Backbone:
């Protein structure tokens, strides 16, 4: 479904003679239909920049991004807008990703009406379906973001991502801004939605234990590069790169053998292990 080849992103210095920063340095990978690739690494290693390059929220400096037969880097503005219906992103902080001045009904209703072209009645019905699907109810559509808990706001963000019926979801640290008590609930929700909708997913986190529970394959990123990649069991049980081993050693609880993955029907991470 998604094939990325030698992707690079260079941030040029804003002052003459200043150093350039290679945020993403020659990354290649693929994600198949219904599969989850977990991307793990320290803050500042380039994970979020990579995710934004995939959707051209920032422009890649070089490389190729193919989504099926679509060359994402070759799309003009109109075609890119249409493409983004197929790939959606759930950001790290649900409060900053939602407009604080918009009620939830407007947040969810806008893409339904203006992108999918639904009339008011159909948009309302679809909005209620989305809220129910992410574990909210009809009364939440009348709330503003500040009136919701962090977990509820992230559920709204997930509902918004699902509203355009995407094929691929980028989950960029989707639980790191949430209380520990609700993190497992959101992770279970993502796994269920992926299974029910047949979604492919790029799951990004600094927590290798969390990534192992969510992913079929893992890529370990350091200083803009993939230093190790492979099936989850292989990376967790037989890590070869010193940086990967250091991430594993930093965790108080190792991933148990046979941990649930996004491919397992009905799979969900146990709450204790899912908590970063």
Residues:
């Amino acid at each position: 479904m998604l094939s990325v080849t030698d992707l690079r992103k260079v941030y040029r210095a804003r002052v003459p003679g200043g150093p350039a920063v290679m945020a993403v340095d020659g990354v290649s990978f693929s994600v198949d239909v219904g599969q989850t690739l977990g991307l793990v690494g320290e803050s500042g290693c380039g994970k979020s920049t990579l995710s934004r390059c995939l959707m051209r929220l920032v422009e890649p400096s070089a490389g190729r991004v193919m989504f099926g037969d679509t060359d994402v880097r070759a799309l003009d503005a109109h075609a890119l807008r249409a493409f983004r219906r197929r790939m959606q992103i759930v950001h790290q902080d649900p409060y900053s990703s939602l407009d604080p001045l918009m009620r939830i009904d407007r947040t969810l209703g806008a893409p339904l009406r203006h992108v999918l072209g639904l009339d008011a009645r159909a948009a309302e019905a679809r909005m209620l379906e989305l809220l129910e699907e992410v574990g909210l109810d009809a009364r939440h559509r009348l709330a503003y973001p500040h009136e919701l808990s962090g977990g509820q706001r992230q559920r709204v963000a997930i509902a918004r991502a699902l509203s355009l019926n995407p094929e691929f979801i980028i989950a960029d640290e989707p639980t790191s801004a949430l209380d520990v008590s609700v993190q497992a609930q959101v992770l279970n929700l993502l796994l269920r939605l992926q299974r029910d909708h047949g979604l492919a997913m790029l799951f990004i986190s600094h927590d290798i234990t969390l990534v192992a529970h969510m992913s079929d394959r893992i890529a370990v990123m350091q200083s803009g590069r993939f230093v190790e990649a492979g099936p989850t069991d292989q990376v967790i049980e037989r890590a070869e790169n010193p940086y990967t081993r250091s991430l594993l050693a930093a965790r108080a609880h190792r991933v148990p053998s046979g941990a649930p993955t996004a491919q397992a029907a009905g799979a969900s991470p146990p709450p204790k292990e899912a908590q970063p």
